[in-house]
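Sample 1 of the test manifest.
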Amino acid sequence: MEVSRLRLLFLTLALASTLPGCAWFGRGHDAAPEAVPSADTATTVGAPSSEQPIINPQVERREIKRAQMDTEDFEVGVYGGILSIEDFDSHPVYGARLAYNLTEDFFLEATLAQSRAGRTSYEEGSGNVDLLTDDERDYTYYALSAGWNVLPGEVFIGKNRAYNTAFYLVAGIGSTHFAGDDMFTVSGGFGYRVLPTDWLAVHFDVRDNVYDIDLLGSKKIVNNLEAHLGLSVFF
Amino acid sequence: MPRWLRLLILPVLFLAAVAQAEDPDSKETGQKILIADPFIELHTGPGRGYPVFYVVERGQEVEIVKRRTDWFMVRTSRDIEGWVTRDQMLATLEPTGVPLDLQEPSRENYMSRRWQGGVMGGDFGGASLISVFGGYAFSDNLSIELTLNHIIGEFSNGASATLGLMHVFVPEWRISPYFTLGTGVIYTDPKSTLVRTEDRTNQIGYVGGGLQFYLTRRFMLRTEYRDNIIFTNRDDNEEVDEWKYLGFAFFF
């Protein structure tokens, strides 16, 4: 018994050592040169026409991945402030703003905002008279404007902080929806922008929105002044 | 109405949050370039008036962080960030040794830019007109253009959307005439103070022409006339002159 167990151990060991060797037979032709490296290199040097030349004339083109540059010419933001609607009181105004910076001096801007008109002094004074229905008192406008950074600069807060700023002028065209009608609106104004970081801007804007309105049978030019504070993000 | 505004504000806040979150990540990415000029100047802000506070010498490597209009924010190996002009960037090299390619349009190659957009203002049969357009060029001469008009008149308001072809005769001229032809829909909303008429949507066709004036780099001025025919369900079709006095267009 003792002998056969020893023989079994021996056979197992032998099998284990020879099995990996069997793998060589399974290998294809291309792997064969690796088994006899010295002989193969000798033939390659002697005959360049062999399968694996040392210098490969067909150089692989190096792929250069150019990182996509982060261009931050667009700005998106929101603002809120006060809009004075001529004859109809002053009310809060909320808006959204999308801007495209063309150059360091000029930008294009699209704004969309809404407010609500109050009651005229005539309505207040005469008791139950309503010039407009509730829906007609909703005031919305959009404007497509061009802006010019007239006075770019920096502000200093203390000794170690400087923030980029710009004073700019804006003029544009757009439309106001008020009193159940759309009015072609010309707007213009100025603004001041401070950048606390490279991608965030705080705006203070003053605008005049001018349009013709025909409420009581006669046409008149209306100037609606607006002042608002906004935040925008460069992307 | 306030609901759409709220819907607009939400993505803005989201964007702000994303922008803030992304900021630290962007430190790792960025194209490395090699200074080839004797030196480049780093300004404190993206503008010609901002003071120069640092210079990087020839042979050193900097990383482009971002670009705003014609200014590039770069980061030096010492983690100093500043803004460099486009002119100085053009004299830098990519790591492979070739000059940095900013791939931007100029007068010579602006025609290769396929997308164009802009805004125009004018007159539509006596009413005020605000017009927004975007176009894609198939070739140097021929492009397809989508125009959205907002028409604000004394007796009616309206809006139209048209799709048309635009043919620029000699695109390499600085002032270049073009021909345009297209069709679309027009929606008219007569004012309630007048005789009761219904809102209507009609098909519209147009033929027209204009001039584009190439300003600089990516920018153009445009002026355009269109002869519109509104196909009504009455006996006669309506014909409306549309003048776009001045518009601004840019390539992107």
